[in-house]
Amino acid sequence: MYNFTIRNLPLVTFTAIWIIVFGLFFVNPYNFENLSKDGLVVIITGLISVLLGFILSALYLKVGLNRLNSDQSVSAVRFNYKNLWHLHLITIILSFIGFVFLTLHYSSESNGLVEFLQNPIAARYKVVQLSTAVKTDWSFFLSISSYFLDFNYIASILGGILFHYNSNRIFTYASIFLGILTSIITFQRYFIIHVFMLWFFSLIITGYMISGIDKKVLRRGFVKAVIFLSLILVIFFSIIFGLRQSSDEGDLNTNKIAELIIESNYTYLAGNIIAFDKYYISNEISPYNGFSTFRDLFKWLIRAGLWDENNFINVKQEFVSVGQSELNTYTFLRNFYEDFGVFGIAILSFFWAFFGQIIFNSTLKKFSLVKLFLSTHLLFSFFMSFYGFALQNMNLIGIVFIFILLLELFIYSANELYTIEI
């Protein structure tokens, strides 16, 4: 069972999160609206397309390997702890520089950081306004800060690898703690969830492949670490939510905040399918032809002078009421539907799963840091599919992918970071 789970982790991740979503939706203690028949058909179409992608990719891999008479075993990897630790430290330092730049920038947007943090709602709106600018009102300094912070994603993946070694284990959490600080400054949950899940998936993948370490001892340490970090994240989310609500509704007592936190997280998981359903039945879609799914690519074409900003459709995901909450997250389905309609949902969902499973299998077959980076991000996209399409951030994926590729090809020679054992 354990081997099956790891080898099919993309399928398991996607299936598990959607079982939770529909389970919470059908329990429905907050009296959410029912889904329309048409909306439900579209949602099921997308989910079935993803599952077909996973199933056919597994059949393709099995038939292909059997035809080639190829070994289907997972490669064993021995990591160079010292060099990976140095690289981890460098990426943490670069990430911290990005955090400092980001803090200075937001401080300059008001009369200091204290005033910025004293009004969480206004600060949140300001963060969204600055981060979504295309060319007009675009800040080069803010972009540089973001690119430095992107190194925290690499640090998270490296931290997941280094956790397997007992020495300095607490420092493998550095990217997560830095992610918490960044999320406090920006009043966003998404960044820390992204960082934590990359660390988590890296830990699972490399723990399955690592050589020379007692796996039973490793799993016990893994369970303790996940429990510890999960408690920290729960406390963090409570603080952020408490700040938002107290700013928006005045002072609230502890019990009221706790109730609102539970309802908010429940809606956060179960409500996005309702948001998509409302969007689907209330809009006559005029396809954006890629502006939604690949918006980051178009932004940089505009900034490079290769695309007219006036011809750019900056797709805005408006808020809709779900229960007592307001959501502007619509699952992975909205991006595909906005650009290419129901046909796009069926086709893009299928290829996303099909190639995602193939890339993940390739990582297990023959390890590399580039493949690990791609696999962890694909797993994250399947995990966050209830929320949105995580792979639309082309800036992050492209820049970090190039950095890791250059690192493996030109900076470190063979066997300086890891050794694949036959």
Structure explained in plain terms:
The structure is a single chain. The protein is mainly alpha-helical and 422 residues long. It has two domains: 195 residues, no CATH class; 197 residues, no CATH class. 70% of the residues lie in helices and 3% in strands. The protein has 17 helices and four strands. The strands form two sheets. A two-stranded antiparallel ribbon has the order 1-4. The protein has a two-stranded antiparallel ribbon with strand order 2-3. α15 packs antiparallel against α16 and α16 runs antiparallel to α17. The chain is globular and about 55 Å long. The mean pLDDT is 78.
What's the layout of helices and strands?
Blueprint: H1 2-7, H2 9-27, H3 37-67, E1 76-79, H4 81-108, H5 113-118, H6 120-131, H7 140-149, H8 151-162, H9 174-186, H10 190-209, H11 215-249, H12 254-270, H13 272-282, H14 295-303, E2 320-322, E3 325-327, H15 333-365, H16 369-383, H17 394-411, E4 418-421
Antiparallel strand pairs: 1-4, 2-3
Amino- and carboxy-terminal Cα gap? 24 Å
Give a count of the beta strands, DSSP E runs of length 2 or more. 4
Largest sheet: 2 strands, antiparallel
Uncertain residue segments: none
Number of helices: 17
* Number of domains as seen in the coordinates: 2
Inertia-based shape: globular
Strand order of the largest sheet: 1-4
Strand percentage lies at under 5%
Which structural class should the secondary elements be placed in? mainly alpha
